[in-house]
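Progress narrative, work stream C.
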Amino acid sequence: MNVADREAVHAAFDEVVAKFGDLNVVVNNAGVAPTTPIDTITQEQFEQVYGVNVAGVLWGIQAAAKQFKALGHGGKIINATSQAGVVGNPELALYCGSKFAVRGITQTAARDLAKDGITVNAYAPGIVKTPMMFDIAHRVGQNAGKDDEWGMQQFSQYITLGRLSEAEDVANVVGFLAGKDSDYITGQTIIVDGGMQFH
């Protein structure tokens, strides 16, 4: 589905519950991250990034809460933000702004939905070895007339643990937020970045 399309998201949730009979955990994970130096940002880029990264999370929260309530139980909503939603990163104005927005929506939804037994949290990955991250590094390097390695170093040079994240590092935190051990946690953003940011 196109997560930026509210009706498509709600329809997909209806289909999931109709097929499986229940729903307990939702992870709003879709995201796009074009390189956007300030003077190059277009209306089309703005609408795409905020449509996927912000509206997609909002529609996912909305659809999840509707289903949990109809099913008569609480649930867990987990949103993807980013280390770039904690501190601004160079040449990523749209991505950073959208991920800061996810943190604010997460906090507000946690307060609004607590009475229904629904927790809402977020996870903030750092530099994960994914094709999207390698593409960002390539573009940042290209914009500076440098190579891909230089581009990656702009983001990874301050990782305290001294290595890039594997996908499993992030998945483990999402698994924790999805399970019973996190039942008393809501409205939080857990940073999973190897020590790039301390809060």
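Work stream C, second folded protein:
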Amino acid sequence: MIIHLVMKSVHNMVYSKFDNWEAVFANPKSIKIETLNTGTIVSKISGIINLNNAKAFQLKDGIVNLPVLAHILQHEKYGNYLIDTGFDSSFTNKIGGNFKGILKKAYFKNHYIQEKSSQGIEKQLEEKSISLNGVFLTHIHEHASGSPSLPDEIPYMCGDGEHETNFFPLIYSTFLKNKFNLKKLDFSVGQNMPILGNCIDIFGDGSFWAVSTSGHTKGHTSYIVNGKDAKVIITGDACISKKGFELGVEPGKYSSNIEEGRKSFLKLKTFFENYPFLKIIFGHETDEFKIIWK
């Protein structure tokens, strides 16, 4: 029943009863979000902030440590979901975790993913006795790398155009290989909402919205949680860091389309400026789990 409701809302043009954000936020629901840290990524600053943007003139390239985040979504009526999966326990003391390829160890040891310092997503869910009804992805990349350790039968949902890393046989991923209930979020049949354009009211009650924010990847998706305790924007990698957001600078060279990503970034920034009571969870940073700038 829960899965059917989600799929109906995503795919069968069930429009929200809300047509503006004032009405949405005036009707919060019993839905909560909890963020988990599942590990660390080593990244170049030029990958997470566009250093070619004039607003980033005071920044120089360097190395930062990025938390790898996953978010538990708990709806009083519809149950538990994840937004992104983070790492699973395959990344513990294993370079590159469950990525594959003949260059995996060389690539991840020197460039991208380091050994994780916190528990994998499946262990953290087990400790919290969380049973999942589904997974929503902002995009794939490492944000879906915990999927192999999660149930195969639940729906995994992401924006249309998402695909896994595939530089076979050098470096590639098969995170979603055994997931037989893959679903695409079709924004072409979404609700046209102010500032953000076509959005999807996932549960049909105004509690949880998917927002198309292409650029970092073609099908990149951000999410809005309209809870009684907190109203939250989960940007995903449409905005990776708090510093980038405050500077007004979009993510950098790790984006598939920087210009398209800038449009999505500015859309989210304008949205926050109109609704400053919202809490922002960035793609790799929260108030609790911060980026370490070296």
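Confidence is low (pLDDT under 50) at residues 1-13. No further action is required on this item.
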